[in-house]
Input
Amino acid sequence: MNANFTEAELAQRRTASRRMAWLIGAVVLAIYIIGFFFKRG
Amino acid sequence: MSVATTTVPGHAGEHHGEHHPAGILRWLTTTNHKDIGTMYLTFALTMFFVGGAMILAVRAELWQPGLQLMKPEFFNQLIGIHALVMIFAALMPAATGFANWQIPLMIGAPDMALPRVNNWGFWLLPPAAILLTLPFTLALFGIGDGALATGWTFYAPLSVQGGLGVDFAIFAVHILGVSSILGSINIIVTIFNMRAPGMTMMKLPLFAWGWLITAFLLIATIPVLAGAVTMLLTDRHFGTHFFDAAGGGDPILFQHLFWFFGHPEVYILLLPVWGLMPHVLATFSRKPIYGYKAQVYGFIGIGVLSVIVWAHHFFTVGMPVPALIYFMFSTMAISLPLAVLFFCWIATMWKGAMSFETPMLFATGFIVLFGIAGLTGLVLADVAADAQYHHSYFVVAHFHYALFAGGIMGVMTGVYYWLPKWTGHMYDEKLGKWHFWLTVVSFNLTFIPQFFLGLAGMPRRIPDYALQFTEFNMISTVAAFILGLSQLLFAYNIWKCVKGGPKASDKVWEGAEGLEWQLPSPPPYHSWETQPVVK
Output
């Protein structure tokens, strides 16, 4: 793959980055919240 | 890796923020990765001196037995805040500053993928640092009883019963955690989505690989720390008993939660440095990096192992024997991928045309001294031996070999290596070499005595000690002051380089390889308006 970025591709990559960022953020929040529901054995 | 550059039609001059504001508004509102990297690095250097001043006060108190300069409560506050400042406000922001400056340059991206998030990530840091240190000031006016006095580990039940400083530190850790998460998300998505055409993951510079693993570790562990300190907060103020044995809680649970974060944190601090080292060693050995793939798999292996070994930090708490054995062997297993890294670093230098400019001096010094951290870490990983060394000065010496020699000297390596690229000027080589030798000699004179003190039984976090420990403490204190003062040379050299000096060429170092050296020194405000293609 040796094609250059165009403005459109750059915009598309930034959109993909934002989606991935929200996904990772959701995982972080899930780890934080799930911990409170653990009970001692 | 061969590189071709091609202009992207219509890209130059259209980037947002082309006419960026000047003065303070530039720094408050900037979304430029280089500006934000500079802010991170400046903040880190400032906090390095704040944290250093705190520990010099501690060393002054430890000059001789008895209480000379401060009350034990204030001593405890200084050591706890020293650690939090050095870890969260100096070393981590320095590594993030490197990431901001270098990752877009190294992977051929025009900027970080999420520039506004990048700005937020930085500007959360100063309020958090203020929160950490504010209780010292408030205490002067009779408000509260000073800063966090539990050590940086917040162990319950002490932290459940502690004063106002604990609440400030809990709030600060939450904010620092959010900042780290925002930075990590940005780094992950930038590496995945913004690489130049042709740069596959297995052509990614090792510095970016090191940071990628670091970012995933932060994503996995910071929420656990945040959860633990939130539970601590609710124990303190909202009637829960997560860590209060009297209410059916378990103080040891806090230690598990804290160190699930705390042990990976060591690798979070070190992986960016391990990623940087091969670049420096290859440059000044004038050879390609040895064992690229082995190092990538080494980073991944260390990352995975780092989240399953946490309980070796509290072997003495009383665990079942199978748990002790599991945590001992899993901890020792980390030495295998780490040994692979050491082998690759040494093999990179082997039979190379080496020269010892300041970055190479720091890099080779790092390998020797960080090796001592690794070997003493193996000693501490041994359950039987740890019973003797736990909570002694042996541990203090060990983790300073890891975090000062491994972490901070690694950061200094990176600063000297990349500063000419960032500023367009060469730093003062003679001053750099003075800084290196003063740092290495005084560092060893500070911490080798602490190994002996620990072996002889001197406990850590105590402002007074038995008479037989006096001589080693005096040596350690004098050397610590030389170590601290010699860092002024570092700050002066940076300032001098920023202000001027001989012009740096684009490539800066004869043996340097990689995309970042294709750009002018300093790089233009918007990186890579001419798109590189990696072949």
